[in-house]
Amino acid sequence: MKFLNKIVHELLAQSSDLSEFNIVLPGKRPIVFIRRILEENNYSGLLPNFFTVEELINQIADKQPIQGISLWLFSFDVYKSLNLIPRDDFSDFLKWFPTLQKDWDDILKFSESDQVVLQYMFDEERIKEWAQDLGEDDDVPRKKFLNFWKNMNVFLPVLKQKLQEKNWATSGMIHETAKAEIDHFAKNTKEKFVFCGFNAFTPVEEKLVRSLLQWDKGQCFFQADYYYFDDERQEAGKFLRNHKTWKEFNDHRAFNWIEDDFNQPKNIKVYEVSGNITQTKVLPEIFKEIENKTYSNTAVVLLDENLLPASLDVMYGVQNLNITMGFPLKNLSFSNAVKQLFYLQKQLEKNKSSYYYRDVFPILEELPKSAEDELVINQFKAKVEERNIVYISRKLLQELLGELSYYNLLQKADSTNIYLDSLIDFCKKVKWLEIDDIQYENVSHFENSFRIIKNQLSPYDFEITMETLEILINQHINSESIDFQGEPLRGLQIMGLLETRLLNFENVILLSVNEGKLPLGNSQNTYIPFDIRKFFDLHTFLENDSIYAYHFYRLIQDSQNVHLLFNALSSGVNSGEKSRFITQIEMESSHHIEHLIIENSSEPIITEPIEFIKTPVVLEKLEKWKEKVSASHLTSYLYNPIDFYLSKILNTSENDEIEEELSVKNYGNLVHYTLQEIYEVLKGKVLKENDLKVSIKEIDKYIDIAIDKLKHQPEFYEKGMNFIHKAIAKKVIESILNYDLDLVKNGNKLEILDIEKRFENVDFYLDASQKISFFGFIDRIDRLNGTLRIIDYKTAKIKNLIVKIDQDNVEEYFHNSDRKQALQLCIYQYVVQNLPEFWGLPIETGIWSFAEAKKGVVSLQFEKGDIDDAMKSIKSLIEEILNPEMNFVEEIKTYSI
Fold first, then answer.
1. Which intervals hold domain PD-(D/E)XK endonuclease-like (predicted)?
2. Is 550 within 8 Å of 199 (Cβ atoms)?
3. CB under 8 Å to 228, separation ≥6 — which residues?
4. DSSP string spanning 755-812?
5. φ, ψ dihedrals at 659, nearest 5°
6. Which of 401, 591, 851, 887 is most buried, judged by most C-beta within 10 A?
7. Residue 716: which residues within 8 A CB-CB, separation 6 or more?
8. Between the CA of residue 302 and those of 32, 327, 503, 567, 872, what are the distances in Å?
9. Using CA atoms, how far apart are residues 389 and 717, in angstroms rounded to an integer?
10. Spatial strand order in the sheet of 218-225
11. Coil, helix or strand for 683?
């Protein structure tokens, strides 16, 4: 820490007792390093006092700071009392006041008078209105802006007065108050002040420093470098060049210090990385280049705080590390659950009669839970998934989740105060559960936030909606982070850019050195236009760019090894453009810069098919399987042997998922179940015209029965695509019934013999000593003009029902998934021929496709070969499944465009 060492040695040269000095710093982070330096120098006296410049200004102003939620509530109370038009409620007020308040603080800090700036803004809007002749319509955007600044010229002076009456002050008001007290303070204080490592000052801070210098009660140490100080084009030296011109710096008081460190030999590498998270994957390779494996003089600087988790993941091999940046609360699971809770409450405020399952499930998954709650939630999810409930009625939610310990959080809140109490109580209970440290901190921060908001709201009588409460909590939480405990003086340092002030490291690794991250760019959140900011000397994005440029150059000027990584991919707000600071050092500095391109790509993966060996246990299960072989088992094997193995041998099944839109499978089931119910009534009858006409009239009734059989809610089909699917299903069913009606009208004799005919124990011999037994269900068996028809319903279109088997292909004919429909019909024909009740009857097997319902039944035809040849091919397929030498190997599907 070269700069801090120089300061300490300078002060020790001036006095052996440092307690007489007050060291003023940009931030508190360097204090621990100063103490270490004093320890290394065997300093045994009292330590100096340490201040940040904000603390010193506050001490001089002697005002009670007010900010955040307390300031917003107080300000709205003042705003409401003025009866300004428009009369915004608190929710609308929060949309503009936080931005205005930052602008107001800037005005108070940098301009001579806030009243002058406010009046200027109003006058400018008046001139624009006059020039554009906006008329009397207050809804014109320009007119709204005029009225806004007219109101602010009334509101802000009153707000300032009300705050002063309570001795409260915003950051800007503190600066304004301190400005009047500085001369008196500098003249009368007996303290000595040392300002270390500052770059940009506000006017009040500059006045304080210069006044103390004039009274010989202050010293100022800057950390500058000739590289950017002497070059007028370098924005990094903008403020320091201005400070050098102060009259306080003369022959008797030098401007300390300007070094020549940046031009010293450095190893600078720039990494163009494809992807944001990919940057963190480069870190282990960079660490290999660092000789000191304690990494005690190495800093990883994250310009994007969201990279912290990914960075920590790749640093598992680093023994000691210190994280000086907090982890944002907004990114944690409990934070997400709280957001979901408030979203749910806003939905309930709209008088929703039911809960959308996607609004409830994330809450139940993210919130910490006891074992009892876990059981209730699992039962609830199982019921909802089983019955495919997309919209859960309040009554059903009470029935299924009433035993949940925090069920009250899912109900519509009577008031925001009551809901805050419920949230506080929930947080207290959660902390007694077995949860990890980060989640405990997350819950504790929220509990504290809920208490703060509740306490802040209590003095005010205006009503807070759930949406407004959510905004308050989000604003509070977005500024909160979980702090880490580490080794501040040992090991690797992980920091944000502002935490590096005054500190120097031999090895510096910066991530996300992109335009928009470094510098932040011109996306200032302000109501004051750029030209007006310039006119009144308020900071613009140009000054902010200069500040960031200084931090960047200062950090690397004392470093020997610099690694600059940027994300080259364009996505979201990221332009994929490297920071212009990188371009500057590439073009203007004397350093040789090594460029590396890191592609986030991989070689095409050579997909090895999954293979399961037929172990003795598997062969044992196959022996059991032989007792109940269905046609669907064989078609499953044809499609993919692994699917057959998982479902038929291991008896696994896919989890039910809630369908917001009816799936192809359940659409087929809806038609299938409806037809089953209709024809079940007609079973055993020779159909008459009237039978079918009555059935057609009652289709809706039978569809409702099928919906109940599917365990779906009737309202699932009341709107959207599901309403259309139901209408299409009805049309298909009508087509099938009308087809049968036409047959009967034309004099055909049609008799329904069986529906969902179950068969089992139908033996099929593979050889003299080995057999299997078929089982299954035939959708429909009827007799048309004396011919027995075996009918299978299919949702898909009909394919390959013309069988062409000869001696050359008999073994492998049905080893093809494209012929699975024919395979199934062949098995049904074999089964029916072997059922005693159907012996001697002419048999026809076919498929009735829902996709082509008007075609009727399309029959299986043998162009070559016969059923005996077909069964030989099926036998070959079964023997392959049972063959212990042939493993189950995945069928990898290839797709072509």
1. 629-888
2. yes
3. 234, 236, 237, 262, 549, 550, 553
4. EEEEEEEEEEESSSS-EEEEEEEEEEEEEETTEEEEEEEESSPP---EEE--TTTTTT
5. -100, 120
6. 401
7. 388, 389, 390, 707, 722
8. 21, 12, 15, 13, 69
9. 11
10. 49-52, 21-25, 192-196, 218-225, 256-259
11. coil
Residue whose token pair is 């007028």: 232
Contact status, residue 273 vs residue 511, Cβ threshold 8 Å: no
Burial class (CB in 10 A: 0-12, 13-18, 19+), 868: exposed
In which element (H, E) is residue 612 found?
Answer: strand 611-612
Instruction: Reduce the DSSP state of residue 597 to 3 states and report it.
Output: strand
| 3-state SS class at 564 | strand
Cis geometry, peptide bond prior to residue 519 (ω within 30 degrees of 0)? yes
3-state SS assignment for residue 406: coil
Kindly report whether the peptide bond that precedes residue 86 is cis, defined as omega within 30 degrees of 0.
yes
Q: Are 218 and 193 in contact (CB under 8 A)?
A: yes
What 8-state DSSP symbol labels residue 508? E
- pLDDT-based confidence at residue 44 (cuts at 50, 70, 90): confident
3-state DSSP call for residue 223? strand
Contact yes or no for 162/141 (Cβ under 8 A): no
Do strands 327-328 and 481-482 pair parallel, antiparallel, or not at all (unpaired)? antiparallel
CA angle centred on 843, ends 840 and 846, rounded to 5°: 165
H helix or E strand, kind and range, residue 844: strand 843-849
What's the CA gap between 53 and 32, in Å, rounded? 17
The rounded distance, in Å, linking the Cα atoms of 726 and 60 is: 76
- What are the tens digits of pLDDT across the range 268-324? 999 999 888 889 999 999 998 888 888 888 999 999 888 888 888 888 888 888 888
Nearest CA to 117 out of 109, 524, 79, 83 is that of 109
User: Token pair for residue 481?
Assistant: 């982070």
Has residue 108 got a pLDDT over 80?
A: yes
Asked if 258 contacts 225 with a C-beta cutoff of 8 angstroms, the reply is yes
Using CA atoms, how far residue 807 sits from 159, 638, 816, in Å, is 99, 22, 17
Please enumerate in sequence order all residues whose Cβ is within 8 A of that of 429, keeping only pairs 6 or more positions apart, or say none. Answer: 405, 406
CA atoms within 13 A on the CB side of 758: 1
Query: What is the average pLDDT score of the chain?
Result: 89
| Cα 877 to Cα 640: distance, rounded to the nearest angstrom | 13
860, 825 in Cβ contact below 8 A?
A: yes
The DSSP output letter for 829 is H
Tell me, what amino acid is at 288? K
CA distances from 870 to 85, 722, 800, 811, 818 (A): 86, 41, 14, 9, 15
pLDDT tens for 463-513 read: 788 888 888 888 777 767 776 666 677 788 898 898 899 998 999 999 999
Structure tokens at 851: 């996709």
Q: Which two tokens stand for residue 752?
A: 């329904």
Q: Which residues of 803-842 are buried (b: 16+ CB within 10 A; e: fewer)?
A: bebeeebbbebbbeeebbbbbbbbbbbbbbbeeeebeeee
